Every structure is written in structure tokens, then in C-alpha cells.
Amino acid sequence: MTPTIETILSHRSIRKYTEQAIEPEQLDTIIQAGLAASSSSMLQVVSIIRVTTQDKRERLAELAGNQPYVASAAEFLVFCVDYHRHFTINNKVNTEFTELTLIGAVDCGIMAQNCLLAAESLGLGGVYIGGLRNSASEVDKLLELPKHCAVLFGLCLGYPAQDPQIKPRLPAKVIVHENSYQPLKLDDVHDYDKKMQDYYTNRSSNQKQSTWSVEVTNKLVGESRPHIRGYLNSKELAKR
Hints:
By secondary structure, the protein is an alpha+beta fold. It has eleven helices and four strands, in the order H-H-E-H-H-E-H-H-E-H-E-H-H-H-H.
């Protein structure tokens, strides 16, 4: 097994950090790894906002749903889908198509994962913060994002001050289909639920009695940020 694969397979979300700073050279390496990511049609529609002022960090922590590690991590990066630079180059650029928003979201995810893997390979840890979309318009205003540029998620980075267990994933036989979509075998999900129930019961923090099926279906039966469409539309994105 290569060091790269070992890094990938040992991923855990880190939410507690030491006070040690990330050296500028390390941060540059992390960013360069992100910039090396694949980009659809070489559009390069991602912008990263590095938030360094403590007052903004604390406000973002509140807006993300009171997640304190947004304020305490050594670095906090906000990933945005960004067609503003393209519109500035040529104001005939039409960003209203939903496909372009999907491209931006995919490119942001690929770039951010490159950044996180690079950070983890350097002994750092991190966690994604989708909670920024809880208050997307307020985050947008705080970061002074222009038209055609929208916030998607954040990424905390720092030196780990915790050593959480690796969270079990659905097995490949549930995720990977061959040639066509295969019906779900509930027995496979039940087996996975048993693993997750054991994980939830025995992990070092936030212990609970639950299963993956219960957790995700409870989440999916309710509303999921219904304001997001209006926010994206206000940025001239995903309008048609």
C-alpha cells in the first residue's frame, strides 16, 4: 500500500486543534495541491477565501450553526463557485444555466479534497463545513462576494488535538454497480447498520444509540435549506 492510499484510508474529520500554526510554506503547498485539481473544460470556476481575522472567524462559526472549530482552527478556507472573473473578462458570459452551477460545485469538491489530502499528508487534519449554507446570504455579505460568485462550503485545517476513530463507510457492494443500476439488498444495509450502531455506541465522543439508516432518513424527510435556490438565483446562478 502506498503512502497516498494510506493517507486516504486513514481519513477522519478533525474538530479539535492545537494552537500550532500552519507554516506559510505548508499552506502554499496545500493551495498548490488544490490548484492542480482537475477542472471541467479548464473553466477554473473556484475561488478560495482564506479567512484570517478573528472577528470574521467567530461570526462564521455562528452562521455555520455555532461550530466553534471554525474560529479555533489554524486555517479556515471558504470554497466558492466563481464565474465573476469570467463575466469580468466578457460580460456576455451567461451564468444562469444550472449545468454551470453543477460544474462549479464539482470543481470545488475536487479542489477542496486535493487540499485536504495534501494537508493530511503533512500531518494536519480538517473538517468540511457545509453549515455555511445555513446562512448563505449572510456569509456572502460578510465575505463581500460579488455577483456570479456563491459560497458552497468551508474547510477547517490544523494540527489535530484529538484522535477519533475512523467512521465505517457503506461497503463497495452497495455503492458500486456493474453495467446498470442494481436493486438495493436491504440485508447489506442491515449489516452496515450494525457496524454503525457499534461505532456510535463506542466512539470516544458524542455517543448515541442509533443506526446509519435512522440518521440519514430522518435527515432526508425534512426540509434541506430551502433558501438555497433563491440565494443562487440572486447570484445569477442556477436560474434555468
